[in-house]
Amino acid sequence: MKRIVLLRHGESLWNKENRFTGWTDVDLTEDGITEAARAGRLMREEGYRFDSAYTSVLKRAVRTLDVVLGEMDLDWIPVIKHWRLNEKHYGVLQGLNKRETAVKYGDGQVHEWRRSYDIAPPSLGEDDPRNPRFDPRYRYVPAAMLPRTESLRDTVARILPYWNCEILPALAHCDDILVVAHGNSLRGIVKHIKGISDADIASLNIPTATPWVFEFDDRLNYVRDRMLGDPDDIARRMQAVASQGKSN
Is 192 in the active site? Predict the structure, then answer.
């Protein structure tokens, strides 16, 4: 059986401050580093030995991966970073407090921006300094391909070519792959793997630094999945994610 483990990054500074982050590059908190280390130890104890790892180009995911691989004594394996694994782009919401935004616009509107499949937040302007066309890490990406905002549908459309053409085919030549990314980029991958409907994906909340194991047969067909860790703790973490965008 072949396995891909999906791992959301540990708690970031803006997770802690309850801000919309998107493509803004923020670091992990000390708790986030602890979470990543715990995930690495858990996977090591479960016997995982990854052949390669993939992550986004955002610091919170890259640093989580570094901590995990250090805990597993796998610092030497190939690591591939790609912008297509970045978080959903939250447009003009990036940097705003989620609770305060919900007070201003209503819980329903913020829930749509956060969790609906096809509704994107308001877009960044072309001259907004947060526009990714000004970021040197994307200098080789055509400006027209870089988002100014995204719905989850847009995020899935960005990620799936990389999943289908790079990550999943790589599993044909190895046994275990680790993908460290973000709440919404991973929601898009899970939606695709499990065939979750556009409506039902709104209720999927992925907790930070919790390994989610997906098993595939030798023909790369999805077989089953499970999260590693204590079920009660996982449920608590999921609920914490769900509550972030509420006004009270």
Answer: no
When the pLDDT of each residue in the chain is averaged and rounded to a whole number, the result is 94
Whether the pLDDT of residue 58 is over 70: the answer is yes
Q: Give the Cα separation of 137 and 153 in Å (integer).
A: 24
User: CA 199, 217, 170: angle at the middle one, nearest 5?
Assistant: 85
89 noted as active-site residue: no
* Cα distances (Å, whole numbers) of residue 112 to 24, 152, 213: 21, 10, 28
Q: Which of 71, 87, 112, 150 is catalytic?
A: 87
**pLDDT tens digit sequence for 61-110:** 999 999 999 999 999 999 999 999 999 999 999 999 998 999 888 988 98
- Would you say residue 245 has pLDDT above 90? no
Distance (Å, whole) CA 226 – CA 199: 22
Beta-carbon count within 10 A of 202 CB? 17
Task: List C-alpha distances in Å: 202 to 111, 115, 153, 170, 192.
Answer: 9, 5, 12, 30, 14
Sort 45 into a burial class: Cβ within 10 Å, 0-12 / 13-18 / 19+. exposed
What's the pLDDT at 247? 59
Helix or strand (DSSP H, E) at 62: helix 59-71
Selection from 247, 93, 105 nearest residue 184 by Cα: 93
Among residues 181, 178, 218, the alpha carbon closest in space to that of 44 is found at 178
